[in-house]
Queue: 3 jobs
Job 1
Amino acid sequence: MAGDDDILGTSARGARGRRGRTAAEGSVVASGPQSGAMLEVQDLRVRFQTDDGLVRAVDGVSFALDRGQTLGIVGESGSGKSVTSLAIMGLHRGGSTTIDGRIWLSGEELVGANPARVRELRGAKMAMIFQDPLSSLHPYFKIGDQIVEAYRIHHPKESKRQARQRTIDMLGRVGIPQPEVRVDDYPHQFSGGMRQRVMIAMALVNDPELLIADEPTTALDVTVQAQILDLISSLQAEFGSAVIIITHDLGVVAELSDDILVMYAGRAAEYGPAVGVFNRPEHPYTWGLMASMPRMDRELTTRLVPIPGTPPSLIRVPPGCPFHPRCRYTGLVGERCKTEVPLLLEASAGHASACHLTAAQKAREWSELSGANVRGEIRETVPQGEVEA
């Protein structure tokens, strides 16, 4: 386990051997990109000033991502996932929003960059698939016209005919039948899954280096969800883009992600390679997410165990570890959980978590929890005594 003043050295090694760096909370952020990754985020903090108080939506999040790699960001609603992605895209309003930290895209700093330059990058080098395609697409314009506009903004020398043909080609590549006909349809004439395919076509029409998919399967049935995820994966292989998939469902990122970032209350709770996070998670919040999911490969004879309570208000984040009011394991640590913010520290090569439990305690508790899961006997409290939520 690294010391409290260390910077987390090496981030998760993905399936293609990528290495990045993550800054531990409270560490000094370097003056430039450290990993050489295509996207690097260092100590990102996003705050919103409201009438009720200051919302600390993202509080010291760091990660790195290379082309061809996939990062899954998971957590409950209100954990800061979408706010992080919008900060990367430069889509926050400047008046009431304060953004600190560093974001580099191919070595170019985005935080504090000229808004006109960020607009040039948005769509050309980075693109985003939003949760609800029906509200993201303009209802008064044909989908072909909307994709043509997105293409010609970054290719002004292309004629309308060339842009239209490029649009038809992209609609065909995302699996929309008769694209030469559907290009002249309106958003309401498409099903939910087809509208999401239109959004993917629009996002990829300029061959961006980075694609952010913000809960791309929300409100879609299971079959269509699988099709959309397979489509994103196949198009990533074709275009070589880096992909960030944002979701509250660990099952969505299980087979797609090289690395996983688990967020809670605007902070990184756990960060590491997908294999490590799934096989040996290091944070009680991750344990709770996994224990509350049904497993198709195991027999479960008892009810799933939910995480007690609800996520905290980001205006009044609990002192100490933000997860401690809901954590079943505070009894193993004592008052430290309520007074001291845990740092994001390496537990193994490239696998970090922000938790006061010792390595031995984590290993023992996860071993017992995973063993009980196999037997269908997940307990709701630790043997040292029940902890109030």
Job 2
Amino acid sequence: MRVSDLQFFGSTIGDLQRTKERIVRAQEQIASQQRIAKPSDDPSIFGQAILEKSALADNDQWIRNIQFGTARVAVADQTLGQAQNLISRVRELAVQARSDTTSAQGRVTIAQEVRQLHRQLIQLANTEVAGQPVFAGTKTDAPPFVLGVGDSVSYQGNSESQSIVVGPNQTTQIVLPGDQVFTGGTTNIFDDLSNLLTALESNNGAGIEVGIGALDQATAQIGLAQGQIGAISNRLDTAQGTAQVVSEAIQQALSNQTGTDLATALTELQLQQTAYQATSQTFTRLFDSSLLKFLPPA
């Protein structure tokens, strides 16, 4: 076999190997739907894709934070609505008890229902989400409101507000501490109910009148908290919408940078397979022809 033949066969084998590599690469792109999967595919685009994926991971975490906060805000809003209804019922009972036609025994009977509502309010104030109290500030390892001697209630949480990260350098408050909602601000609602119970059971008409005024303050205080929770909910909704838009934009950018154009990849695969087959057939024919030169004449 002449040197020129050896060179030709070596070159052809190299062509076949490179074509086979391109076939494998096209098959990988079709299977993974990724045009850029490793640095050698395109170092510049691969590096940019790493940055985009890091940004997407951060954004996904912010979305999870928002979902966590939204769940707590929804429970807080529902709980405050129930607390508002409960206070309204207590006020109805207090107005009934204030009447001169209500006897001392009647007021004691009313006190029994008020005490039940008082205990229900404690339960509402200790509402939890995923095992963590909603109205404890940042001290979420124990119920924030504890019933003490008689009808006294103490607050065991703190005055700090829970906040979450919702975007780059962006945080938002997600709940209100219990001392702001129930035991602080304008009035201490639990003390108001305790004082009302004392007035009812001691047949103290003036004390009942004072209690009604305190309940009006309690209603306003809970209403203020509901408004604040509503504002927090709106901010979370806005943050959720923004994060979703950012997520979709990053995913589109990644797809544009690294994704496979399926039609192009299929066409490339077909072309390379055709080239491989043609080159292989040519190589076989030439190889067989070359061997004939070394066969003895018939």
Job 3
Amino acid sequence: MLNSNSVLEVYEVHKSYGDVKALNGITFNVDKGELFGLIGPDGSGKSTLFRIMATLLVPDKGVATVFQYDTVKEYKKIRDIVGYMPGRFSLYPDLTVEENLNLFASLFGVAIKDNYHLIKNIYSSLEPYKERRADKLSGGMKQKLALCCALIHNPRLLYLDEPTTGVDPVSRREFWSILNFLKSEGMTIIVSTAYMDEALICDRVALMKDGGILSCKSPQEMALSYRDTLVAVWGENMPFLLNKLRAINFVKRAYSFGSEHHVSVIGERFDAVKEIEDCLKGEGCSNFYVKQIPPVIEDCYMELSS
């Protein structure tokens, strides 16, 4: 295995569903107190990996351990010390907020007051609706209730599978503030997301694609490892601009990024901005702007996955 002091270790884990390979030799570790992110689009294998780490799915090959307990052979010990919030809302829809929380506390043999300090900031916004059925809550409120239920037994390791998917921007920010509080309390957290901007909040991230890990570093290290020159281009007739950018022989990649096009230029070209401007003008483009920019996680993902 990778490191006997790690909270979680995953080594050469494979999982297939028939002919579909969901995980293809995944290997990584998570250290105590880390906020670790699994970043990738839908279908990259994140949820399958979470289910294996949470002892709900057996890998076809490879080993995963949590606090040195094997997820297959010692799953009962693991379930007492981890909290798991799956991607889909999985609480009891016909129970109220309070009834769901009491149920999960009783399943773990604890009283709500024992660990109320962990959920106080979250539950305060839910308390006025404690008599409301879970299926009548908004998306953000459902996620907060699910997080409360995952935390009520004070787990040593918390799994969150795409907790902010389908949640409004304000609730997303609130959710990440809560995670930072839990991290400050010493909890180890593994969170998956398809929102690459959320990767910046993590200590380390693993970029996933097609059941494998492309890279596993801190967001800062990942940006520093970007090998090419990156420029942003924007202006009139963006589709026309994109086609012309992709036709330039020293452009490795060009793709839409919000209101801009990001353009990866082969190697370190000190005159990349001027060279692109000259090429676009030569193709009849006008009213456009070009500037060199630092890479962000999305750019690193595009580079590694191409």
